[in-house]
Write a structure and sequence with these properties.
This protein is an alpha+beta fold. It has helices spanning 2-16, 18-21, 26-33, 46-55, 66-69, 83-87, 151-154, 159-162, 188-192, 338-341; strands at 89-93, 100-103, 109-111, 121-122, 125-129, 134-138, 144-146, 164-166, 172-175, 195-197, 208-210, 228-234, 239-245, 258-267, 270-285, 288-289, 297-301, 309-314, 322-331, 350-359.
Amino acid sequence: MRYLTLLVASVALYGAGSKLCKTCHPTIYSEYQNSMHFKSTLKKDPLHAALWKLQKDDFNGEYKCAKCHDPKVDNKLDSGVDCVSCHRIKSIKEHVNSNINIYNSNPKLFYSKDKKQQDKIVKYHKTSSFFGMFSNVEGSPYHDIDYRNMSFYNGKMCMGCHSHLVNSNNLTICKTPMQGATNSKANCISCHMPKVLGSATTIKITKKHAYHGFLGAYNRADMLSKYIDLSIKDTKESLVVTIKNNTPHPLFSQPLRVLKLNVEVKKGNSSIYKKSFIFNKTLGKDGAVSLPSKANEILKNSMPKANESLDIKIDYKLQKGEKVVATLGFYKVSPKLIDKLGIDKSLGKFIELKKSTKEE
């Protein structure tokens, strides 16, 4: 009877995808539901849908984005990047245009990370001690867990979708250097899925788990500020605001993102000087702004690169009693494109990342 129950559970997992995972991982599933992995499909992401509508003729209507946005590894649901999609990635096949996820063929075998068990495959079992008074549970009744896949320790498993994208004109639309997915101590997973309080599962209680909301522009962007330094220097002849990107990739690689620096000088409650600086990546075709699918050149790329420090000089002499305030933030989508794309104006809202002040 026990084996029949497990067989039914395995079949259910194969067909239901992430919905069944919340049975044992309610906290993780709740985080996942607020992530862009969950909302990656045409039905759930209005920006992705708007861009596809404008570009689908360039692909003859063939939705090639599904490879990453809606992979459907085990089911036919509009599930986006679900638990099964990530935890079945066996390896990454590198390709010049975009990498490819290679999935294992066993629907019951999931990969995961546990430094204490990185040489093991764990099957569901219970152990007892002290004449049965104490018991311990290992594994899951729904699937086996393979802790030996090193791509889950160095972050390489993320690079099937997040590495790069080259269009038909051989133009790199976005790129995340592979160097960020080689170190087991600091990588995609350690930064975007940090350990937070709460049990990973109801089967075996843990104090912490990897955050499955996936930190980024859409989710907990405030935590991105940990990887940015913003400082102000008064040279007596001018002001210099320094932005330091401490991440191993461009601060924002998606071309629609816009980084903005606002500099304001105040005296008391009065604002006496204001200036803004825009940093973005603009794609074009033959000198004119273009959609990613048609672009054949980069017209502008001022976005801070990996580990880059930018000094912005401001021709203003700070006087006694004045205070300069520098505010760094971003737009998920350039406000200039909101109406053209026909998407919610909230996506064009300024989101603050970091603030720095200096007084004379």
